[in-house]
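Deliverable D4.2, example record:
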Amino acid sequence: MSDDKLAAVARYGDSDLFSAVEKDALALTDAMCETPVAVPDELYERLRAALTPQQLVELTATIAWENFRARFNRCHQIGADGFSTGAFCVLPVPARPPANGS
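Output generated by the structure prediction step:
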């Protein structure tokens, strides 16, 4: 993945660097990392149409596993081991306000 594409991950929806399937996979990642999880039916159906059942299971399992690892590491204050020191690092997407306005 190019540095330009990696830098655009935080704004993937507005970027022409990602295919429609890549944008949907990233949208699924965002939806699966929400609390509570809120995956729109339309998004799931688009991914079902674009991926094999095995690919969709692998994608969702990978997202879930990485989300678990990130939350686990944050809770235990486990930081990086320095394997990617000096590598490109994408800033996190700013938090969205709650849907109910509270």
